Fold each of these.
Amino acid sequence: MIELPGIYNYLVVVFLMMAGFYVVIAQGNLIKKLVGLSLFQTSVFIFYISMGKISGGEAPIFVEGASLYSNPLPHVLILTAIVVGVATTAVGLAIVVRIHEAYGSVEEDEINAKDLVDDAITEEAPSVNSRESQ
Amino acid sequence: MTELQLITWILLIPVIASVGILITGKYPNLREAVSIFAGIGLFSLVAQLAAITSLENPQSLVLAEPIPGLTLSLSLEPLGLLFALVASFLWPITILYAIGYMRTHQEKNQTRFYAAFAVSIAAAMGIALSENMLTLFVFYEILTLSTYPLVTHAGNEKSRKAGRVYLGLLMGTSVGFLLLAMIWTWQLTGTLDFKHGGVFSAEADPAILGVLLVLYVIGTGKAAIMPFHRWLPAAMVAPTPVSALLHAVAVVKAGVFTILKVSVYLFGIDTIAGLAVADWLAGLAGLTILLASLIAMTKDNLKTRLAYSTISQLSYIIMGAMLGVTAGIIGGGMHIAMHAFGKITLFFCAGAIMVAAHKTKVSELDGLGRRMPFTMLAFLIGSLSIVGLPPFGGTWSKWMLIQGTMDNGIWLFTMVLLISSLLNIAYLVVIPVRAFFKPENNSNAASPTAINEAPLASLLAISIAVTGCILLFFWSEPIYQLLGGIF
Amino acid sequence: MSFMDHLPILVVIIPLLTAPLCVLLNRPILAWFVSILSALISFFIAIQLVFQVNELGTISYWLGGWEPPWGIEYRIDLLAAYVLLIVTAIASLVMLFAKKSVEKEIPENRIAYFYAAFMLAFAGLLGIVATGDAFNVFVFLEISSLSSYALISMGKDRRALNASFTYLIMGTIGATFILIGIGSLYMMTGTLNMADLAARLPEVADTRTVRAGFAFLTVGVGLKLALFPLHLWLPNAYAYAPSVVTAFLAATATKVAVYLLIRIILGVFTLDFSLQLMPLDTLLVTLGLIGIISASLVAVYQGDIKRMFAYSSVAQIGYMVLGIGLATTTGLTASILHLFNHALMKGALFIALGAIAFRIGSTSIKDFSGLGKRMPWTMAAIVAGGLSLIGIPPTVGFISKWYLVLAALELELWPIALLILVGSILAVIYIWRLVEAAYFGKPNPYQYVQEAPLSMLLPLWILVIANFYFGIQTDFSIGLASSAASELSGVGR
């Protein structure tokens, strides 16, 4: 029987993940979407960190001759993943800034509506001075 | 030259010609000279190849091996020789005709026209000389693509639509069915080579063979069996020389040639004879023969009528192939040549009428025999040859086909062929007869009796084609001998 | 160790280091020059690697000299060498084309950054292919993805930004899924080395964690791959990205994702696991087929040609996935072949579209009117690429269709064979819309249009000729594909 504290972390992970995922899908605001995305990624970091932890385990570097120690590898890996996450958020925010400049909005529905207008313009009058040729 | 060199050059000459045509495009006389000389050269090469090749043991020219074990290769065999001879003989003649036609008609983009024409002929030669189904398929598709600019030559909305039907049906059937059948055959037998007696083992499941045969026959859209015939009338928007050589000879004959090859060399006539589905396909061909003839009667546009007549005639050959008897195959093979000469004559005449009298409708032709006596006489001879009356070439092929239906033993097929001959009279022979004996219905022509014939180059081409129709009656023996060599 | 021994890492490192160099040089022409140089060097390294692998078998390179499974291993087998070759070849050609196109489409002060991002994306893709370490895959995946988001957002239309943001959201979710998958596998086996994973997984294969990990990995890669229901980011991203980016990503990024899928399904997990414990074959075949038909149908109705070919890419990915799903050596050969062949055709097509965008500033079908006369070489290339896409012999498209249909028929799945060919017929329709517009429409009399410059025609026609060459002379492509396929399915058996 698995005792509750053992899987407690994973429940948190699942909760955070689903919350983040939900925010990404449900929110129309691009910034909030990015917040959700960060939450989603962070849950995975916790997942990795929990994975390496063993109850009662020591840090393998400080203690000489420890037989029960936490696995450091996932923790190191997740450092990389955190960097990736930060980079993603940065790129995402940069794009949002430019979207705001170009569309004057960060609301998904407004942007999509403007896109539809753009699409219609492209369909009707394709380029600078061409006419429907026949 | 050796056999392999000849095969190489046969394929290369039209291609070189097309490049030459593009280069000399600015000088029409030079350009047409290139076409004609290439045509004559090609025919002489094919003839030379026929002379030096021993058909029992032909050499094969391997071009490439795109799929391990499956090559693109060429070699000579009786059916292919016949097809190559017919197509290469009629090419320079059609060019001769086209010179008169295209110039009088003041068509645009003539350079593109002659260049695409030459590529089409190269593709037809490739089909004729194919040693296996893959090679045939490759050239088959090249033929479809190279004729597309010819069909849509006029570049207007009508030809654009026609091009859509043309490409849609030909490519759709070939990619959808023919390719499937090929890959299936390859998967079952591990070969696509044309072999005597077929490639399938005796234990092959007849149900699968039946499905394959159906796929092959309907997949060969160029054979225009109903319900995949619509492209042929649509293709009539092309300039008449195209209709004449490609849509009465090269393209459509490539279709029925494919079916003949498949039935003789992939299935083998004994297998065909044993398949119940072959009789049904022959029945479908019979239906096409009759329906196309009936539709032809209702068509007033001369070229469309000829197109439906072609559809009906092509199904003769399909029927011959599906009968599963020697006489059917030989009859079908002979019909490739006989119908080619007959139908090209008719198309030449239709073009001549269009150029000289500016008439495209059958109902307008009454009394035209007085103004264009030579053209109309040629038309009469062409139609009689197609009906199958002596002393014209069509007699023998029809004879053999009827013999084939009798050997097969289903009397319905014999009836179909006989009825169809009567229908031929009703929709083809009637035209010259009315032209000679009915009075002209519009008398606004300044001098109704003045002779106003097509350009000389065209007339010359017509007379060669007509001579062919007659000569083939007396010299059909070599063709018979040649095709007899299949078995 | 000699220089030659370090090739597996050099092929990745050289473009990776070129990226900061581009920023430091900060001059468009210099940035372009070092970029094309590094693309070419990678290309020659890739050729060399193909030879080495062919001769000596799989290369295992220990990063920093640490022995796997503890250290990171770079593992170049036949398939990896093959994909490296495709990616570097396309990158070199695209770089050749890029100079003028980028000058036209990207503001001058950003060109150096553009090349830097491009090189990062390039290095990332190469890294995914070269590495033998699962976590390393994730890192390289993110390197290539993040730089792709930036590249796509540089499209001059503002819709590029929205497309890029959508891609960022979906791409990040996909990458995170992959991360979860890798985590689960690590949890069960304690290793990240792919070969080691493959050896240890069978013991624990029948656990929920491994299955969940497998599902996460497949869905994650499916997102990157634009597998049918997960393809929504792709059409807009391709349609609005700068021409150079579209040409590069269309020809390589999805291919690398397909490679990754093959690696995961066959290399890490075994065929038995993927097919028997998880119903992946049914899933891939079904999704592949729906993708082929639906995306082709949507392509027929697109007004923008770039987007039309983007949908066509979704359909083509369907072919590749279908081949994997058939799970036979022939099917796998077909997929690997199509991976190569599709890179050739889409590379050619998108470069041609780039040339057209360069001259007339649009890729809307209405602007194609009369282009057959104005830009004969470019249009001829599009027709040739289109024929290859349809699968007309003697093009490469024919060869891959042949193998795919053959694979379906071997399993007696003739309805699938028929549907594959229906996809081809749909391709005829959407290609021919373009042909009709270009050759039958009247040219716009108010617009002066010239043939594309030589620096664009050259890479374009190299690819077009390759389309025909590898359709006739297939020793190389089929040889590599079939031995890679049998090597992989050998692992599975």
Amino acid sequence: MTKPLLDVEDLRVRFHLRTGTVEAVRGVSFQLGRERLGIVGESGSGKSQTGRAILGLTPPPGEVTAQRLAFDGIDLLTASKRTLRELRGGRISMVMQDPKYSLNPVMTIGEQIIEAYRAHARKAGRGEARDRALAMLEAVKMRDPGRVFALYPHEVSGGMGQRAMIAMMLVTEPDLLIADEPTSALDVTVSMEVLRILDELVSERGMGLIFISHDLKLVSSFCDRVLVMYAGRVVEELQAKHLREAKHPYTQGLMSCLPTLANDVRPLPTLNRDPAWAQ
Amino acid sequence: MLDIQNLKVVYGTGRLRVEAVKNVSFHVEAGASYGLVGESGSGKSTVLRAICGLAPISGGHVRVDGKEVKTPREKSFYRTVQMVFQDPYASLHPRHTVDRTLSEPLAIHGEKDAEARILQALKEVGLGPSFRFRYPHQLSGGQRQRVAIARALILRPKVLLLDEPTSALDASVQAEILNLLDDLRRELGLTYILVSHDLAVVAHLCERLLVMQHGEAVEETTSVALRSGQASNSYTQSLIQASQGFSREAPAPLAI
């Protein structure tokens, strides 16, 4: 890894509320090359806010600070709105959790992909954009791209919607894809299919991928490297294949509290949250 | 305890007719725990809803304790069968305190001694008396699900219908709720029917289970067989595979 694609140092996200300041992300640092990085944690651990902060999508009144937040040498904190607009959806894309909410309900899937493409490749004509969109739908293994192109989001299943979403996000050939729980709303066998497509596209195009999930088992089987977050901090970073040798009690607890088919443990071990972990 | 024969659930008529459940049969003995597994749209939740009267029984028989259920269900039915829903954020009244939520079933059934019963119910699910006058928004997801379980148990039912009781919860909280359900079943001699898409959860809580797909029963199996990876059906096999996590080598699953 010569120059990192994404360089994050001491990222903090704060929300100033009437009841005081809540720090959702407290000093997260990592570097990302063209690899698959997983961010794992339970609800409220700050994993999604980390992903959003990178894209500048922190909802108001949130405040983002960092020592460094650079994408391919571009400082995302001081970049102009115009530069950010060009990066977002162009060189950095994000796949959200639920296709039901992240697709535009009154536009056909084809139109949405064309819109995403032409927003970044302004010189592209409609014909070219259409070809690209169809090719992209084919790349995400839609059985009949021409038919899906003309469908509205409510006419497709969750798995198809999520694949359409991935097609839209990848049509601009981004360098970095942030996937925030891309398969949590899907059935297991469907989510395996979606992951397989994501995996192929990421390795074919040499993208960097940040995969945010609460599912430690899934992340470790899919990613190269895993960051485990607890209370807004990274408590452990490890290679996915060495997950079983996790040192932090939180990671170990998360691993062992899941029932598995292989072992019948009763009662299941529960997590004793040590206040020191949050320090 | 519970006997389902050729259960059929049909919604709509004519062009809009959907057979959500087609000829599903199974039998659950008293004190046993039975799982229904499948993906969304497989009809597993509809089976539960048909048992407790939230979905129509369009054909077949549902017998509880040897007696055919009546539509609408009688009051006494709900003394025997109670349900816990998936989303603890949606299944508790947001403007009712825990105390009011728990006293409702007691009032409906004319039970006396509400005070003691509520405190007892809270204790059973591992919440202290300090939770009694809280509102749902003052509770975490796991605590809410405990309240929902307390509400289901307060009438001392024999059968508990559990519709994905842990899928809205974090992994560590899921472990706590699964342990609680395990303990309660042993202490109170309950019969469970658990619906879940998570094979590991079903194998943990149930002895026998039914795999469903597109409203039909695909295979009845035991959690022991599941654990040893035995499944005669290719669909069950693919579910077992998927539950092991993502694998780059595994053959492509069935098309969506």
